């Protein structure tokens, strides 16, 4: 019997009951990878010998009476995390031989919890795309349709989960990099509250693994069930022991509610700056109907909601402010000249991208002031609501597009083309203020592609959207293996 598609929770129960060993689970996962991954290309750095040794060690530990949260569970890790003895390249050819000497803090936490690391999953170059491909490891295909992207930048992890390559994976999210691949591949992901999970060792090569606090970017869990997200988040959450962890311990508040009928939810399916495709609108509608049928209070509008257009502009400005830090001086000066030519009335996303690339510290402080106003607006909002249901991107997975000029790419929304990066505005809704957001499957498009939505919750109340995700999984179903 294969154990590739059960959840981590189910596998843990089988291991505790003695129905299977970690060595057997690991061999099954490796066999599936060796049989199926040529078509998907999700696993870019296998680590099978050490995985088998770790699995045997997990079985010995269980025989001694140990029972850690992930003891013996096969998992994968996004390529961008340092693992001692394996390359960390971020898909950049210049760093194909970069070999970290120690594990990232999250890899250490996985191993301490007893997980068996099968290997690393593919990423886009520099983690800077909504797709996953690079010159070193090639292209990761969507398991549902190999002509389409698995998403990015955690596209390898999402494709691995959908293909049955391990029960859990860890990724990261700055512009939807956990949520978009989950949406495209039909799995679950959680973008934690900003700062909730330490990220040391998730650093672009050849940089040192320092315990820095990132702006916008987070690390988080991916899984095939909502409950597994909570299981893995409990392993990942907590401050870095080298900094805040020297003085503080994490205690997340419980979910606000346990029953669907007690939730107060705002449902959004329209954004002022980009349309939402019909397949995604239908997915949002399915979730809204399930909430209403379950007795939840469902609203479609609220004066408490922070301004979506302004939020998208502020987010875009921050997102692109770090993208040119290592550009040559001449290229940077050309961008400054272009930005100086913008009309002061131009509040478009194109203008926000350009202004962000040449943002001065003075302008950053002004933008951060706007962000703090939005954060406070969300605090007021969450006194009346428990969660927001909204799209992750405007479309299901789209066909591979490897045009090297990212600004020239277009995203097709129901037959009309829009700027490629405009699709990030929904991801930015949670990222800019640092809110937690859980990506959940919400059915399929007419073409049979997965469609997901995100559940955005109050800051540091990650258990609230995660609990809502569990209740929705019980109501509308969850992960389905690709056909």
From TrEMBL:
Per the UniProt record, which EC number(s) apply here? Answer: 3.5.1.4
Give all residue intervals belonging to the Amidase domain. Answer: 24-464
Query: What GO molecular function annotations does the UniProt record carry, in alphabetical order?
Result: amidase activity
Q: Does the keyword Hydrolase apply?
A: yes
Q: How would you classify this enzyme at the top EC level? A: hydrolase
Cite the entry's keywords alphabetically.
Hydrolase
Return the protein name: Amidase
Say which species the protein is native to.
Streptomyces leeuwenhoekii
